[in-house]
Amino acid sequence: MFQLIPYLKGYKKESVIGPLFKLLEACFELIVPLVMAKIIDVGIENRDMPYILKMGGVLILLGVIGLACSLTAQYFAAKAAVGFGTELRHDLFRHISTLSYQEIDQVGSATLVTRMTSDINQVQSGVNLVLRLFLRSPFIVVGAVVMAFTVNFRLAWIFVVAVPLLSIVIYGIMMITIPIYKKVQKGLDQILLTTRENLAGIRVIRAFRTQKEEQKAFEKESHTLMQDQLRVGWISALMNPLTYLIVNGAIIVLVWAGAFEVNTGKVSQGEMIALVSYMTQILIALVALANLIVSFTKALASAGRINEVFAICTTMESPKSRMEKVSDKKCEAVLFDHVQFRYHGSKEPALSDVTFSVSKGETVGIIGGTGSGKSTLVNLIPRFYDASEGRVLFDGADVKAYPMEKLRGKIGIVPQKATLFRGTIRANIQWGKQDATDEKIYEALEIAQAKEFVQEKPKALDTMISQGGKNLSGGQRQRLTIARALVRKPEVLILDDSASALDFATDAKLRKAIAERTKDMTVFLVSQRAASILHADKIIVMDDGMVAGIGTHQQLLKTCEVYREICYSQLSKEEVEQYEKE
Amino acid sequence: MKKNKGTVGKVLKLIGPYKYLLLLSLVFAMISVALTLYAPILIGDGVDVLIGKGQVNFPEVFAILKKLAVVIVLTCVAQWLMNLCNNRITYRVVKDVRIKAFARLQVLPLKYVDSHPQGETISRIITDVEQFSDGLLMGFSQFFTGIVTILGTLVFMLGIHVQIALVVILITPVSLFVASFIAKRTYTMFQKQSETRAEMTSLVEEMIGNQKTVQAFGYGEEALKRFDAINRNLQTCSLKAIFFSSITNPSTRFVNGLVYAGVGITGAVFAMRGAISVGQLSCFLTYANQYTKPFNEISSVITELQNALACARRVFDFIEEETETVDQKDAVVLSQVQGEVKLVDVSFSYQPEVPLLEHLNLTVKPGQKIAIVGPTGCGKTTLINLLMRFYDLDGGQILLDGNAVSKVTKDSLRASFGMVLQETWLKSGSIAENIAYGNPGATREEVIAAAKAAHAHGFIKRMPEGYDTVITEDGGNLSQGQKQLLCIARVMLKLPPMLILDEATSSIDTRTEIQIQKAFQKMMQGRTSFIVAHRLSTIREADVILVMKDGNIIEQGDHKTLLARNGFYAELYQSQFAE
Questions:
Q1: Average of pLDDT values for A180-190?
Q2: Is A439 exposed, middle or buried (0-12, 13-18, 19+ CB in 10 A)?
Q3: What range does the domain containing A376 cover?
Q4: How many Å lie between the alpha carbon of B396 and the closest alpha carbon of chain A?
């Protein structure tokens, strides 16, 4: 929390005025019992009607001033807290966009979204609460005790005993119940898990006829949860009765001791009533503080989580200076030089000793099983990750030498997961090239085999895509993401298993169009389907992070055992050989 | 409103079993409120005895304080017991509701589950029940005592002095008006705030959730610009919403201050005239505070209660959902299934206005392999849904060994099929538990034998704890292929006479893939099998290939016949190798 305090810097005035006025309000509240005491001791005693009315007026005036103070306090506290939240949000958003893939993997995007939304909201209301109430409650407690001392020194000692006693009970019960509440939360999480599992597996559960067993398990979990809830309820139900007991016990002692003081004339009747009032005020303030602490700990936890994100710094430096290098026709488009790569925190390298080169205009197929390192390999080209050892060269220069935007601007990548954004189809394609005209967009759509279905939509390019592209089929989404990468006419196009949702026919048409219409583009085709990469100029076979073979289909069939295995598991003997002959 | 009444009735019915506990809770509530209200009177009496210097009657003070001590202790005990009763009622009722909801989940038709988002169903069983429980507890502990306190205070105040009581009665409602006035005003502001927040959340979800894509296309700057615009909007409307809503507390406190002052002035005037004692005045001042408190709370309690009722209604709706069709009384229990399947004039659709299967006929001889192929979304899985009776037919019949499946018990029908779906589902638990799923009596040897038959033994052995390795939710620590092998082993343990297999489209590495193929082959020997097929090798070896398109079976026959026909299948097959 404290590391985040600088975000209040722009709101210094507000952060001081807020609590200050809150304290003023508390002061006025503390004066009320004294005024009442005067009414009783002076007004009633002397039967002085004007005095009573005057003091009554003072009471109302105190209320009005208190209201004004407190409204001022609320306004400035709210302003400071909201301003704090706004700037924190901005900074966190910007910070996240500087993170590289490695850091995003480490934290997880879902986590980042929660940090950006609910955690910041939680901290914002925490700040608001602190500015408003954190000073007020302790101040009332201390203030009431001090006032008691001004009324009567000896009776005030009862307060000095009662306040710690009350605090111990309130915070003691909190301390005992918080861990049990956590256990309750865990029980709740467990039944949530069971419910989710049962929903997801409903077909299997019915097929295996295990409904009764599932029901029994759920009932058992619900029962455990209930028992924990009852246990924690038993203890927290003590809070109100115990505080009531202490406060009223103190009042009994007060009246008893007060009887002697009154008898010796050291305390008046009115003052006795004031003391009783102070005791009640203390109780209310302490309870408020206890609730405040609960929300404050939540805010603290959120603040801690936000700080964790801020603490993560990007491991990738982007050179600021512009690389002035004229593209040389003779340069290899992409060259891997003994590249090793290891994901953060992983012992096994995901890629080891990968070396190959690709000339401009070539089509490269990359094939291999899941986890063999295909995607990892292509992710090193646009420098989503940095190689742990070895070098990756792009157009003759190390990828680390390019300014990041420059490098990525030359590459069109279609990731495995087809991600689209809310907005029109046009806006989505323009992610690839901001100023792309409709004509260029349609050209890209045509190559991506998406022109037809886009034109069939009544609004064509103006068709709105909902979040995540849910109003499109998986295949349509994939084709749009391909068009998005194509529209910038990249030097290198990377298709990372991005035709998996297309049927065989469309997949084939797509490959044909790319081959015909983008002659000088270097294309990387990552796939699990042997049929998709058969015709590539060069096929790289990946196996367990290593290159198992490089060559054409015909060459690899002869030399590469892994490749043969893949082909024969997917295609018939005739099919494999048919292409060998071609 | 009428709907609410129905819901209240149902809630009462739920509480029914605990009515004595409820009665007890009400009795304790009355006792504790009555005693709480009696204490200020005693304190007032105590103050009255302290008249002034040298005039204190000590024995009387002592007597009053003794009484007060007893009252206080009794109040505490009554309060605590009341709380215990309330907890007990609430948590038990909630458990009952939750178990009922979960039981309903087990008998819901698949149609319901498929057509409602998972999150929605989960939130009914978890969140809504939770909210209902909070509301119920709050209702018991605050609503009832609040009302009793208000009524009790009124009676006591009127009993002491009518005019001062009137002052309190007249001013207090002002705080209610103020609170509801502010609440109405702030409602729109809060709505604006939550709209803006929702807008921001969805942008954040898109941009941060897909940060990798954002970076790949260098969209970061643009995203930040869009974010800042919303952020500034949020700042403005949040400030308004937060500030105006935070006016409520000080305002009601101000009204309370007015009540206090009013009681103080009028009370002092009457005390001056000797109509009431100073002690009674102090008692009035305490009442004035006590009386306003439930008033301030009651509006929030009412919203909470309304919310709880709304939640309860959603839960009840769920509990009252129609169940799967129940087995007929004279339903046949299948045994010794041969595996002859006949579809006679079968019609089926998910939505009446979109026809899917129409007048479908198919005869499958025992032991045949049926491959179902076609483009995505053509209704391949529909056949699985119908064979397993996850959905009921609209027309026609499915006959199993000559028995109409609608006249067979669901349990025995489902028991005669072994099912492996593409979407693998595993329970959180150990690997052995998962393989023995549905056959809890299986021995370790049987489990291992099944795993071996499914070619899963190898990787299981390499897991840190072997067969006792715990699988996290949804098999997070296993690869897709390994999960599928476990699902196969689960069926292998007790191989039923017929099979339904749904081949994975992709994302399985080659070696595991080969193992899965082998396992499938072994399972299918001599069993009638329906396979939703993506692998050409599977398709080629099938006895009958059903080619589906837009919900219809457009071609039927084996690989050679279909190729020779040169129709849709031939096109589909050849397109894969087109240059």
A1: 85
A2: exposed
A3: 361-383+403-581
A4: 23
Q: What is the DSSP letter of B283?
A: H
Among B383, B414, B436, smallest CA distance to B496 is for B414
pLDDT at B443 > cutoff 70: yes
- How many other C-beta atoms can be found within 10 angstroms of the C-beta atom of residue B496? 18
Question: Per the domain annotation, does A470 fall within a domain?
Answer: yes
Start-end of H helices in A343-413 = 374-379, 404-409
Q: What is the mean pLDDT of residues A93-118?
A: 81
* Residue written as token pair 């087109």: B578
Residue A27 lies in a domain: no
Contacts of A223 in chain B (CB under 8 A): 95
Does A280 contact B286 at a Cβ distance shorter than 8 Å?
A: yes
pLDDT at position B166 is 87
* Beta bridge partners of residue B502, listed in sequence order: B532
User: How many structural domains compose chain A?
Assistant: 1
User: ipTM for the complex?
Assistant: 0.82
Q: What is the pLDDT of residues B529-553, one digit of tens each?
A: 898 877 767 777 888 888 887 667 7
Tokens of B145: 């005592």
Residue A549 lies in a domain: yes
**pLDDT recorded at residue A394:** 84
The distance of B358 to chain A (nearest Cα, Å) reads 24
Using one digit for the tens of pLDDT, what is the confidence trace for B169-192? 888 778 778 877 887 888 888 888
Where does residue A188 rank: exposed (0-12), middle (13-18), buried (19+ CB within 10 A)?
middle
Per cent of chain A over pLDDT 90 is 5
- Give the pLDDT band (50/70/90) at residue A363: confident
> Residue for token digits 């006693």?
A165
* B28, B37, B50: best to mutate for the A interface, most A CBs within 10 A: B50
Q: How many CB pairs under 8 A join A and B?
A: 415
How is chain A split among helix, strand and coil, in percent rounded to 5?
65, 10, 25
Question: Is A521 part of any domain?
Answer: yes
A171, two tokens: 């915070």
CA distance B134 to B379: 44
* Strand order across the B528-532 sheet: B417-420, B498-502, B528-532, B369-373, B544-549, B552-557
* Predicted model pTM: 0.74
Q: In this model, does residue A325 exceed pLDDT 60?
A: no
Alpha helices, DSSP H, located in B19-144: 19-49, 58-107, 110-115, 118-123, 129-138
Please judge whether B212 and A104 are an interchain contact, meaning their C-beta atoms are less than 8 angstroms apart.
yes
DSSP B426: -
CA of A360 vs chain B CAs: smallest distance (Å): 21
Average pLDDT over residues A48-57: 88
Residue B388's Cα: distance from chain center in Å? 27
CATH number at residue A493: 3.40.50.300
| Chain A residue numbers touching B257 (CB-CB < 8 A) | 32, 59-60, 62-63, 66
Per-chain mean pLDDT for chain B: 83
Percent of chain B at pLDDT exceeding 90? 7
Q: Which of A550, A161, A557, A525 is nearest to A356 (CA)?
A: A550
Rg (CA), chain B: 36
Decide: B400 and B334 in contact? Cβ < 8 Å.
yes
Listed residue (B157, B293, B289, B53) closest to A277, CA to CA: B289
Q: For residue B217, which residues of chain A lie inside 8 Å, CB to CB? A: 408, 431-432, 484
Neighbours of B94 (CB within 10 A): 23
